[in-house]
Amino acid sequence: MKLPIYLYGHPVLRKQSVDISPDYPELKKLVADMFETMYASEGVGLAAPQIGRNDRIVVIDADPVGESFPECAGRKFTLINPKVEVLDGDMCSRSEGCLSLPGLSEDVKRVEHVRLSWLDEDFQPHTEEISGFLARIVQHECDHLEGMVYIDHISPIRKQLIRSKLGNIVNGKIRCDYPAKYAPKK
């Protein structure tokens, strides 16, 4: 089932997510719904806060960008309670967008090499060193679990320049090609 994407300004996007346990109700259905929602929205990653849940769940299918970024080819996974450890201090700036910030993209500096530890949807543990654009996708999605969005990484001047666009998202003055949940009216 396709779920609505919660847009910038909605309080759920600013809350820190909590770990889930193996008795989480209907986890496999939720993961399937998250993948369906991500595909319908043409994303490569989706975190639970983006569908209104403050649970540490992320789905990623980076294969669509695998031609441009070989480290992404064939990479599809579910991250339960992920933890990201920075391994390389070198920063690289690339353009990022987000389903929760439709119509926007900004250059964001991120490290190029991380160690990712997570549980899969069967609660089997995994640890892997990840580099390049795949590391960027993982960091972007895991930021959502910490109540952050990618524009939190841009300069105050840059943020000021996109202020009216952010206001349009918050005030529901934009249209998405996918179902969306706008910030509640004050």
What does this protein structure show overall?
The chain contains four helices and nine strands. With 186 residues, it is of the alpha+beta class. It has one domain (5-181): Peptide Deformylase (Alpha-Beta Complex), CATH 3.90.45.10. The strands form three sheets. The chain has a five-stranded antiparallel beta sheet with strand order 2-3-4-7-8. Strand 5 and strand 6 form a beta hairpin. The longest helix has 14 residues, at 27-40. The mean pLDDT is 96.
N-to-C terminal Cα separation, in Å? 30 Å
Q: What is the H-and-E element order? A: EHEEEEEEEHHHE
Radius of gyration: 16 Å
Assign an overall shape: globular
Task: Give the tally of structural domains.
Answer: 1
Average per-residue pLDDT, rounded, comes to 96
How many individual helices?
4
Q: What's the CATH C level?
A: Alpha Beta
Trace the largest sheet across and list its strands.
2-3-4-7-8
> Main sheet?
5 strands, antiparallel
The computed structural class is alpha+beta
Helix percent reads 10-25%
Going by CATH, the architecture would be: Alpha-Beta Complex
CATH topology: Peptide Deformylase
DSSP strand (E) fraction? 25-35%
Residue windows where pLDDT falls under 50 for at least 5 positions: none
